[in-house]
User: What shape does this take?
Amino acid sequence: MQHRLKSESLRRERRKLARIAWTDALTGVPNRHHLKQVMDRLQQPERRRHPPRSWTVMMVDVDHFKPLNDQRGHRYGDACLRQVAQALSGTLARPDDVLVRYGGEEFLALFPSASQRDAPGLAERLRGAVEALALQHPASPSGCVTVSVGWASHSEQTGELDLDALIAQADLALYRAKCEGRNRAVGMA
Assistant: This one.
């Protein structure tokens, strides 16, 4: 009996440690380690036999974040990132959709089964969810916190999926969104 209790306690501790290892401490959303786990799982042989027909990856970056930290302080910036993460998480509709904190003020959203046709609406949903928070941002042209979104899509008709390449394309699209004025979504097929 005591051995069984000890084993169950150990399993709970392992699950707790895994959650800690896969979760961003500041925002509470999954981290890049979790993304790696998801990507590894997608490469397993049984998943490769029946992969989703399309994929969309979105890179999301908080606009003018450094000036926000400089003017309002890091505590406000941290609170802002937590609220942005929760708003972005709230837009995920499917069980396989994933949002991770990618680094700093940047997030990555992975939408298995989302097509190029779905992508603009999904990107606008992410962008709009953050804008709807109406968080004050004195250095932003709109006066509130906004995000730029870059997305890239892949379909089975275009060949084998390379998630790293798709992430790189989404990152390029994010750069374009920022160059075109921020607070917008730009995509690449």
The radius of gyration is 18 Å. The longest strand covers residues 54-62. The helical segments are 2-22, 32-42, 45-49, 65-72, 74-89, 119-131, 163-179. DSSP finds seven helices and five strands in the chain.
